[in-house]
Design goal:
By secondary structure, the chain is α+β, with helices and mostly antiparallel strands. Helices cover 33% and strands 27% of the residues. It has eleven helices and 19 strands. Strands 9, 10, 11, 12, 13, 14, 15, 18 and 19 form a nine-stranded antiparallel sheet that branches. Helix 4 runs antiparallel to helix 5. It starts with 5 loop residues before the first helix and ends with a strand.
């Protein structure tokens, strides 16, 4: 007699499996979900901004599709950087809606425009589009981020924005139904098999009582292999009990949710101490600076430098071009290279100006060159304001870890240093003007100071100059002083000096001979009975130790350029 539960269990198991499979296939929810921006009220916005709280909703990523008939830019930047760039421009701001099927749209209707966002150094990621652009959003790193979308900063910003993400809605009973159904079916088959097996011995016992029993026993024996074979085949076809993909995703989501508060606190604690740019930004900035300088050097046209060069670097290069225009054999300035990048020191200032230092050495650089880059405001790009060559036997002061960045130090404050950055540059100027003065031991021995002092002494002691009074005055420009903290608590300081050589005849009838010098080419005179003032620019890089130490300040880099020669 068959077990009366076997067949119902098999049927029930198969039904449960079919229901579970159906929930994973034709009853399954859509693979993705999406939400679109409601453009009503945002028609006058010149920028569209996706706020940090919206992007944080999609920590696992989201596809952002933007459609616009006009060319536009999609830019990703740190939240405070994007906000600083937007400033008071009319903006449409997207944040999470009341549910997953809506976006909240706020507007800043100030009526202000903005610059064209294309090419800004603030952006960690920048993409240009026209018609349709799809951006796969994932946070570039720790911290809060914003996405900005705009045309040229004056025309209306794109407002056809759709966010699409993987649907995490599931049929939670699909896999359990499949597993339970399979187990029930196997149990039913097993009961049927066991029942058949238990009938055999009883029939075997009755077989000795009569010849008819033998036939029934033989038939049961013939059926047993087919039942066993069916069970074996079903077991082989049953799904393995591996972790379903959607359960793995859910577990990952739980882990992510559990770690989110810690990550948020880490990001918050790091706020204000993160490097202001990432490696990809630095590479892009250096390439642009080097390309601009190369073009300016080739044309000897200072106006070509203005997009990427300012401060002392611009003054020295523009002067070089001007002198070269009158003196063909005047030496060209040292090339500026984007690579090879030897080391870097990235500021962490949340506000502006911001400071970055990169030490590079290109094929045309016999020694490494330290490049000081400064960004004056959120809407300005970085400019090269100083380029100095490393001195022989010098090393670049060790910056803090790249992940930590370097704190910017106010130029007029010692801020834990042996002297303020401006004080250090002024001390160097004094030690060059008065080599035996009170500042003579402020700096350790270095090639730059030695060469400058040696030249000055030679000029003053040369018998050819006995009829003239020759003086040298080095003066620091406090507006061109920048400092970043080093790993040991000291500072790397960039400064700029003007070095004025004044030669004046001692008595009436005496004159200063200019023949055969570059000064003749600049002034058009072979001699002067009134005298001449010659000014050089001197860009320097110093190391200032932390206060309380016994070490001397050091001159680790310098560059010098003839600026002007004027008759008195």
């Amino acid at each position: 007699m068959r077990n009366k539960f076997a067949v119902p269990l098999i049927v029930l198991g198969v039904l449960l499996m079919l229901i579970g499979i159906g929930q994973r296939t034709f009853w399954a929810p859509p693979e993705t979900q999406s939400v679109s921006m409601d453009a009503e009220g945002a028609e006058d916005a010149v920028v569209t901004v996706l706020e940090p709280e919206l992007l944080a909703e999609y920590s696992d990523g989201v596809d952002i599709t933007v459609r616009s008939d006009a060319p536009f830019t999609l830019a990703v930047g740190r939240a405070n950087d994007v906000q600083a760039w937007v400033a008071d421009a009319a903006a449409a701001r997207l944040s999470p809606g009341e549910d997953s099927s809506s976006l909240a749209v706020g507007t800043d209707k100030t009526g202000k425009t903005a610059p064209n966002p294309a090419g800004s150094d603030l952006w960690v990621i920048e993409e240009s589009g026209e018609g349709e652009l799809s951006h796969d959003w994932k946070a570039p790193g720790e911290g809060d981020w914003r996405i900005l979308i705009a045309t040229d900063g004056t025309a209306p910003a794109p407002t056809d924005v759709t966010l699409t993400w993987e649907n995490d809605a599931t049929r939670p009973f699909a896999v359990p139904l499949i597993v339970i159904g399979a187990l029930l079916a196997v149990l039913g088959l097993a009961l049927a098999f066991l029942r058949s097996g238990s009938d055999g011995p009883r029939r075997s016992g009755r077989r000795s009582a009569g010849p008819d029993s033998a036939g029934r026993d033989s038939g049961a024996a013939d059926k047993q292999p087919s039942v066993s074979g069916t069970t074996s085949a079903f077991t082989a076809a049953a799904p393995r009990r591996r972790r379903p993909a959607y359960l793995a995703a859910a577990a990952a989501a739980v882990l992510a949710a559990g770690s989110a508060p810690a990550a948020a606190l880490a990001g918050e604690s790091a706020a204000g101490s993160q490097p202001v740019i990432v490696d990809s930004q630095l590479t892009r900035i250096l390439d642009s600076v080097a390309g601009t300088v190369e073009a300016g050097d080739a044309a000897k046209d200072a106006s070509m430098l203005t997009p990427r060069v300012g401060g002392a670097a611009y003054a020295m290069r523009a002067a070089n071009y001007a002198v070269a225009a009158k003196s063909a054999d005047h030496e060209a300035p040292v090339p500026v290279a984007a690579e090879t990048l030897r080391t870097q020191s990235i500021g962490t200032a949340a506000d502006w100006p911001r400071t970055v230092v990169a030490v590079t050495q290109g094929e045309g650089n016999p020694v490494p060159q330290a490049l000081l880059l400064v960004q004056d405001s959120a809407r300005d790009n970085y400019k090269l304001v100083s380029a100095v060559q490393m001195l022989p036997a010098s090393t670049f002061p060790q910056p803090p870890a790249a992940t930590d960045g370097s704190a910017q130090i106010p130029a007029d404050s010692d801020n834990g240093l042996a002297m303020s950055p401006q004080g250090a540059v002024a001390a160097l100027a004094d030690s060059l003007t008065n080599p035996e003065g009170e500042k003579k031991d402020t700096f350790g021995a270095n090639r730059f100071s030695e060469d400058v002092v040696k030249f000055q002494q030679q000029v003053q002691s040369d018998p050819k100059n006995e009829f003239a009074t020759n003086t040298f005055l080095h003066a620091a420009d406090p507006k061109e002083t920048y400092a970043l903290r080093t790993a040991d608590g000291g500072a790397i300081v960039f400064g700029y000096l003007s070095n004025t050589f004044s030669s004046t005849p001692k008595e009436a009838g005496d004159s200063v001979n200019l023949e055969g010098t570059v000064y003749q080419a600049l002034t058009g005179e072979t001699n002067t009975d009134k005298g001449i003032d010659v000014t050089h620019g001197e860009a320097v890089m110093l190391y200032v130790p932390a206060s309380g130490g016994t070490g001397q300040a050091l001159v680790v880099g310098a560059a010098q350029e003839l600026l002007s020669a004027n008759l008195k």
